[in-house]
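Pilot study result, target chain (418 residues):
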Amino acid sequence: MALLLNLLIFSCFTQARELNLKDVYQTAVINTEVIKRNQARVEQAQEKKSQAIGAMLPSLALRANYLKIQAPDQGGGTPRGLVLTDQYSSSLYVTQPLFKGLREYSVHRQAKATLLQNQYLADASRITLYQGVITAYYNLIIAQKDFENYKTLEKYSSERVKELRQRADIGRSRRGELLQSEAQLSNVKAQLVDAEGIVAESEAQLAFYLNDRGRSEKETYVLAEEELPTTIKDLDFYQSRALERPDLKAKMAEVQITDETISQAKGGHLPSLDAFGNYYLTRTGLLQTSKWDVGLTFLFPLFQGGVVQSQVKEAVEKKTETILAYDEIKRGIERDVFVLHESVSRSLKQLKELEAAMKKTEDTYKENIKDYRYGLVTTLDVLVSLNSFVETKRTYDRVKNQTMMSYKNLEALAGVLP
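Predicted structure:
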């Protein structure tokens, strides 16, 4: 089913190459190996849990043995005829653990916590993947916008060269003005080459998430741009949501895992008790008519060279390390949410001023074109106003899309997925 969905989405992409952020993320979930790897870890943890349960249940085995004994001398105390030189037996052998210092129950609880941890990590990997998609998606939009702005600058610069060449031919403009405009055009064309390369690199990054290996180099992606919100929710909303992230929950599950490791280490000081029994299928010797036996195995550790105590201390330090790692991750998330929230809030205000500046620089350029024809300004004034207009538009487009990238990342930090 997943493969069919992938093919359907991919076929749509190859026809039109019109994408939105949600489509790219959903395709990345299907194609990216990290999601499949984490799912495999969940399955492994499920099997570990089954193994922990199985360790507490009885086990049944078919057991057989054969013993060859050298016949004793005739002069010995044991009559030679009473000793079987070939001894063998076969039986159904059953064992049942009764008490293992409570370690068996701790192992089971630990396996459950490990399963929960891997489920949380699988969910966290989706957030990490989404953040990678966000970055690739908006970096491509920024690169495409930059390329478009340089194309606009090239267009206007070409118009200036064409007009000045005509004016220079009839003596209405100086040759130096034409050369100045031609230098501007050559410089813009050089910048276009660089901008085109950045677009290609950004497309390759996005194609990685789409697993779009069959894409032609001449094709390009048309990416949908969402509208920026005018305001965003307050910081407390994002902070509280972020503290419910699955990676934090995974770290808390790891604390529980280390707790169980401590319990298992302490269990090494306690005795163990196992029950066993045999039902004999074949048997030789004096007990050949006895069909079964049962027994208990008791083991009480007295001295183990301080190994168990060392294991307990190691497990305690491991728990301390895990708690510190949890606190560090938590503080890091709180910091990232604060920084992104401040950045988005500030950029939303900045964009209003940049939009006004972009309109004014465009109007300035248009007015300078008119004034130049009346001899009121120089070619340098026109070029400066043109460059100012395009540079302001570049800044506006870049800040706008970087703000959208930060806003989407802020949502992702709060665990909001498309």
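One observation from the pilot: The longest strand covers residues 86-99. A full batch analysis is planned for the follow-on phase.
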